[in-house]
Amino acid sequence: MAKKCFAWVVVLFIVLLTIGCGHREQPAQGQKKKMAVVISTLNNPWFVVLKDAAKARAEELGYQADVFDSQNSPATEASHFDTIIDGKYAAILFNPTDAQGSIASVQRAKDAGIPTFCMDREISASGVAVSQILSDNFSGCVALGQYFVRKLGETGTYVELLGLLGDNNTKNRSDGFHSVVDNYPGLKMVGQQTADFDRTKAMEVMESLLQAHPDVNAVFCGNDAMAMGAHRALVAAGKDTQVMVFGFDGAKDVVEEIRAGRIVATGMQFPKTMAKMAAESADQYLKGKRDFPQKVPVAVELVNAENIAKYTAYGRSE
Amino acid sequence: MKRKHLVYIIGIAALALVVGRSLEFRRLDDKRAEERTARFSPAEYARDFWDNRLPAALDHPPAADELIRLFNTDMKAAIAKGKTLGQSRVHAYLLGGRGRIVAVEKEGLLVSVLADDPNPEVLLCTGAYIAGNALRDASGLVDVSSFSDTMKFNRLSAEINRLVVQEVIAPFLSRTLQVGMSMRFVGAAEVAEDATEKTPFGGRAGLEQSHGPWHLLSVVPIRLEVE
Asked: What is the pTM of this model?
């Protein structure tokens, strides 16, 4: 008898354990499922557009969308993931702070049964995030590099402002640009410094670069915030008509500056497209779809004085 | 006795479920591909791509003259024949054909491939370097999702382009090339959806200039041969 009871207890225990493993707390009836929108920084208008678009699409799809600002800090980001895991969110729309440093957070979410969809920036891992929807930064900067060579006439000196060194976008943009420009011996890079994708820092860096290299012909910036900072420094030094500025993003102020002829070109990214795709992928995942590509590059388009009519801030005019 | 069996069956089923949930089953090919990318060497990958995988894709490339006519008259139909990386308005194509050298420039050879038009439509890129991803993407043989990060994916492109310069362009340029020569080529091209919106390939981009500049289809050469 005791043996039989023990057998039943073991069976019951295993069944309960099995059910427990598969159980995720469901929102109460009438309560919306929650999506977390985790953004590397909201101190840059481009990321605000990414955030707004992700939140809006998630809400259109019937989710409660909560925004988390990582303030460019992997530690803050990791703490957000703790909150998200404890808060039983259904999915995460994620713009990481660091390609390597953010992997652990995404893995923790995955282990907790919460799918993550990366937007714009990638994590250097396969099979951790469900899908990563990323700007094709390299190709975008190949096109920018070709235009740069055309505008400078294959000779001259230039400086480069790099973004965050832990972000793969920084490397891909610089690599794409140099894959073209380095083939022209007449084009000499006389300075290369990081300004962390930050407008104020870019202005300071450009000021010091101008003191060391007053006759520079052009500056290539890894994003538009830095292009605006560099442009400000050039205006202050009275060199804005002498030095050509190239950016990357397609931000509102740079699109206006290109239209006005004060900045030469940028690479148009499509934050609204990427955010929308991420939210829709998350929704499809939650409805049962499992077959997602690990990486979805989204093309970057060259914007200059010749085609500016086709573009508006953060996208195409049409 | 029957109940005892039932208990065992339920127990074993539950145990199998618990163990099953803690295991992950994956295709061996996927696992091997992952290991290959983990010890990624762009030069080795590019060499394998060039020697072992690309040749089969070059046996019957779409005819360059037919594709150019399609770009000029029906871009939607042309897009359907291309390969697209992710979300893009630029599409990549393998193509091959015959043509006549119209000019020899620093950037490459201006070649006429349309029999009824003496103007050049193609720029065969035979300059000092190749940039971009035309060959990698046109082949359709390299999947971005099989790379842990996009930097590796892009380094591969740079290596493939280096092979084009070393093994196609340099030997070809060692011979004397003259305007009027006939040649065969196989190559790769990237074409934006609005590329022929204003001027067709082979058309004159600036009407004010009597000798061009021409609006040309840039082709990264894979095979070049003077007839």
From this structure: 0.84
